Amino acid sequence: MAMSSLSYDEIWSHPDKQLRKHLENVGNIAKLSAEAIPLNFSEGTILPEVAYLIGMYHDLGKATPFFQKYLREKNPDRKLLLKNKPETKHSLISATAAYFAVEEYLKKEGLRGEFVPFLAITSFLAVRRHHTNLQAATEDLRLDSGEALKRQVENLYHEYLSFLPYWSVVYGKLKTLPDGWPLRKQSLVRLLREHRGILTYLIQHLLYSLLLDADKHDVAVGPHLERKSLSINMIENYRHKKGFIKPQSQINILRDEIYQEVINQLKTLSLDHDHILSFSAPTGSGKTLTALAFSMELRARIIKEKKYIPRIIYSLPFLSIIDQNAKVIEEVFKIGAEQEPTSDLFLIHHHLSDYSYKKENTEYGADESEILIEGWDSEVIITTFVQLFHTLFTNRNRAIRKFHKLTGSIVILDEIQSFPHKYWLLFREVAEAMGRYFNTYFILSTATQPAIFEAPKELLTVKERYFKSLQRTQVTLNFKSPKTISDFANEFIESLTTNHKNTLVVLNTISATEDFFRAVKETLNKIGYEVSYLSSYVVPCERLKRIDNIKGESPNKKVVISTQLVEAGVDIDLERVIRDFGPLDSINQVAGRANRNLKIELGEVEVVMLKDERNQRPFYSYIYDPVLIDNTRRILEPHSVVGEEDFLCLSTQYYQHILKAMSNDTSQDYINAIMMLNYEEISNFELIEEKEQKIDIFVELDDEATEIWEQYQDAVKINNPRKRKESFLEIRGKFYHYVISVFTRKASKNLPSEVSGIRFIARIQLDDYYDLETGYKTKGEVVIW
Length: 785
Hints:
By secondary structure, this protein is α/β, with parallel strands linked by helices.
């Protein structure tokens, strides 16, 4: 059939979906999602209609014979040729149409307001980049491919598109292109400079997110998912059944007191003003359960008073503690609500999580599961700092898609002391704006609260009493005389012959932990100690097994040798801790692994300073910012011993020093980029700044790894790209449990071959590349972080 004789029901957006139906679905989903967001600025009332128009127009450019021919083509080579023709591309013409439609809507309604001039522009940018990533806004206004754009307009099935709002006006303006295009770089620059602020960026992020998510939903999943209710009594039921309401031990009594005081803060909380909340409590005081309970109660109050449903997003810095905290939340559902939490109730999202989405009576395929999981379609989400902050500060299509799920949500930032100080100002500006305009609540939970915000609402108003009442540990400071690993190992072995205590040793680099482990392991085994080793060069699944073993009962005493991956939040409890010198918050956190549950009278913590024997350089200098180290030294040098009751005071002093000493240049550069919608600059944001590139390596460690590798090999052989991706998604979580990431330069002397797109260590190669105790072998590298 010739293109010109196509009937209206033969115009398609996708091989299995009619264009009109797709546009209407995306417009309606985007509008419904926007209506559910509690927007608190004058233009907020019109954003749902703007989102609707963006959705209705986003694929308008597919209504041309050029695109329809491409969609129908069966021959792969000819299809690729058609795809690359300028006339086939649909985003630019769709974006210009969306701009004119939103402009006409604003004019017809007679709308005025500070941000109204941006709404048509942000609509244009959202549609133009809905298949790529956002670019610098001032450079993205040009109508390149002007001749191709004219041919597209001339060949539009314009009568078919008459169902679109304001279509006659929009079509008339399209016919004037490219000469009639009103946007110019200079005018946008002037507008952005006149209206300097965060809100423009947040609106751009929001409209882009709403479009992306609605588009994905309609194509891959179907109708918008219904929100689910959470049992308000779930956590209290859990506490009753676990016996927490009648605590017996000193530590459990303290945990209950903290819990009750935090929950009582809901009575004095202003839902309109208290969007930044601080929860500072000692390590091991039950912050996970208390923060979750407070969030559940806050959610219930918001539903009752504000008439919208906030999600609860629980974010943590380290994968080593995500599974641990996820187990607590799952147990609350199972015991407190007597139900297995389905994915629409509770979701785990990080790069090691399974891509399997289930709700009652329904299990989604891998492709649909990916859409739902990465879109945070759930009531309670547990995720990483990387996922969260790379949604706030990015230009990436895939990451921004879930941004609108942050609006109106309750975001718990656990172990917030891990957030880099160079980004404090950036986060403060954006978080306060999200609280003010989008009613997002941030709960900053830690034992060592950094001075990111000037006056957050305190959930534990008498926190000093709780810190002073705890005397679980005493920190001995022996860092003034640096020691080599060999000298330290000899002293350590000697100490254990008389001081028979379960001991955790935390060192600053992987090379230091490996050297120390090899120096002490054999002797410690002979005198009856179980020695465990933890670092990021041990495959993730094996690390989790070792942490479970460390927490388990044993007739023997234990020694754990680890990098910093255990220092924050990992629920292990040993009698003695030794840590190489580092920042004060790290020392404080690792001290929380000693006598955590008050099983003995006083836990011992010792801070030493270790140096690299090859160059006499302290190991801390390889990984920590000198500003942090210098201020830690300044705080601790006057002391020889510090009790746990002094931790809060010292931490407060430390963070005040950091606040004065640190530079805001990095944050300010990003804030300037945000205000100018310079997404290319924003794309450089890295929460974890790597010194160099890393390379992924799959380790065929055991029978399960062999089975997963075989499934991976089957997946990569599938010719169809979509089916190949779906097949990999089915095993993705398990696959990455056997993947380690190694700095490329440090692995260069012992790098395994690449197989099917990833470096691969076969079982018969383990002796060459992987030590069953210490993990990946780098063969003589000087320092390994």
